Amino acid sequence: MKNEVIVITGQRGTGKTTYIHNHISKYDRVIIFDLLGEFTNYETTHDIKTFLQKFSKKKKEQFFYLNYYNPKTGDNDFLVICEAINRYEDILFVVDELDYFCNASYSPRQFSEIIKRGRHQGIGLMVATRRPHEIPRLVTSQVTEFIAFRHLEPRDINYIREICSIEEDDVKSLKNYEYIRWIEGRIEKGKVHK
């Protein structure tokens, strides 16, 4: 697996989760940290002990999707799962609503290790957030692909422009499920389908 760091951002209801659903099918080994119960159509565990047991059994499997969803999820669950992922190889780690656990100036050590050393283990990262200016700098410094759905907040739009030169009017005028994708310096428009 390539060491991709994919950031998906946009207002609520604009298509972020649909984009993730459509694009994780390109990967063979996926772990999802699901804060809002949006990925329960995949094999899902609701407690950390069961998650770790299932994850351990899947270590040698070539194909799996494993989702962790607990409506009472706390920071500790996120840290435990990050720690577990740091011991594996060739995995895509999906974190929906990253801003619940990180901000622009802080990301937990366990999560930072995935970003810093993940390329040596083939760990890819796909994160989604409504507020791009709250993405940890460590993530944006390593981003390989940036997907922007509609934003209206000036602070968010300015941040997007700083990262990948997407123009304000382009971001504001997007309709639901339309996005602008920056990858390797190229900018392209697209639409996700439900």
Can you tell me the number of structural domains?
1
Number of strands: 9
- Judging from the principal axes of the Cα atoms, what is the shape? globular
Query: Mean pLDDT, rounded to whole units?
Result: 92
Q: State the CATH architecture.
A: 3-Layer(aba) Sandwich
Structural class: alpha/beta
Estimated radius of gyration: 16 Å
Spans where pLDDT lies below 50 across 5 or more residues: none
**What name is given to the CATH topology?**
Rossmann fold
Q: Helical region count? A: 7
Strand coverage percent: 15-25%
Name of the CATH superfamily: P-loop containing nucleotide triphosphate hydrolases
Q: How much helicity do the residues have?
A: 25-40%
Which strand order does the major sheet show?
3-4-2-5-6-1-7-8-9
State the order of secondary-structure elements, H for helix, E for strand.
Answer: EHEEHEHEHEHEHHEE
> CATH first level: which class?
Alpha Beta
The biggest sheet amounts to: 9 strands, mixed
Distance between the termini: 26 Å
